[in-house]
């Protein structure tokens, strides 16, 4: 069984930065972050494979960076130049080898709130 534990959410002013971390137990391959804003559908923010290949939502390119430490089975999302529209619940996600982290993640964290407001 795979468990995902997130940390790093909080309140930040526009233009500020936050770093989200996710630690996984068990064997996983792809890891990533999704978010759900009030009144909107859950969307992919960023994803990364164990080999380092990355995918970003167009809305966060140039502002967010995803990275991982394979030895520790952790993934980090560095969020810079935050905007109010980045507000939402951020969920860590993971997929086993052979499954798609960007399509249908198999495992989810509990979610962490990110609020960007003045």
Can you put this structure into words, describing what you see?
By secondary structure, this protein is an all-beta fold. Helix content is 0%, strand content 50%. It contains no helices and 11 strands. The strands form 2 sheets. Strands 2, 4, 5, 6, 9, 10 and 11 form a 7-stranded mixed beta sheet that branches. The termini are far apart. The mean pLDDT is 95.
Tell me the fraction of residues in β-strands, as a range: over 45%
Described by strand count, sense and barrel closure, the largest sheet is:
7 strands, mixed
Distance from N terminus to C terminus (CA atoms, Å) equals 40 Å
Q: Structural class of the helix and strand makeup?
A: mainly beta
State mean pLDDT (0 to 100 scale): 95
Rg from alpha-carbon coordinates: 13 Å
- Compressed to H and E, one letter per element, the order equals EEEEEEEEEEE
Low-confidence stretches: none
DSSP strand tally: 11
How helical, in percent, are the residues?
A: under 10%
| Alpha plus pi helix count | 0
Shape: globular
In terms of topology, how is this protein built?
Elements: E1 3-7, E2 10-12, E3 18-25, E4 30-36, E5 43-48, E6 54-56, E7 64-69, E8 74-79, E9 88-95, E10 107-108, E11 112-116
Parallel strand pairs: 2-11
Antiparallel strand pairs: 1-3, 3-8, 4-5, 4-9, 5-6, 7-8, 9-10, 9-11
């Amino acid at each position: 069984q795979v468990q995902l534990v997130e940390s790093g959410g909080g309140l930040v002013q526009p233009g500020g930065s936050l770093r989200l971390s996710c630690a996984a137990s068990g064997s996983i391959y792809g890891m990533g972050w999704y978010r759900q804003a009030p009144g909107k559908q859950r969307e992919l923010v960023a994803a990364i494979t164990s080999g380092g290949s990355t995918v970003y939502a167009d809305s966060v390119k140039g502002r967010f960076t995803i990275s991982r430490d394979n030895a520790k089975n952790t993934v980090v999302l560095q969020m810079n130049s935050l905007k109010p529209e980045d507000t939402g619940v951020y969920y860590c996600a993971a997929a086993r080898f052979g499954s798609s982290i960007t399509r249908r993640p198999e495992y989810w964290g509990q979610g962490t709130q990110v609020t960007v407001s003045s």
